[in-house]
Amino acid sequence: MDSKPIFEIETRTIEQTDRCNKCHSCLHDPDFQLCSIDFVAGDGEVLLMYGNSGCTECSYKRPFGSGSVCACPIRREIKLKYQR
Question: What is the pTM of this model?
Fold first, then answer.
């Protein structure tokens, strides 16, 4: 059963997100918890997460200092388009 996407994301962005181990659940599952982005730098090029971001076992999460960097193309587009 195909459901209407929660977020309208560019097809190219979805194709770039080829390492998603959650099967792009953020786009279709209303109960999916997005990771918490605490700071955006570089015109949206860098998404920083501190503390408990809610993002676990994600192949796009990378340790950085006392926090993490989110390198997920879909998450970046959601943050920039929807401020979520």
Answer: 0.88
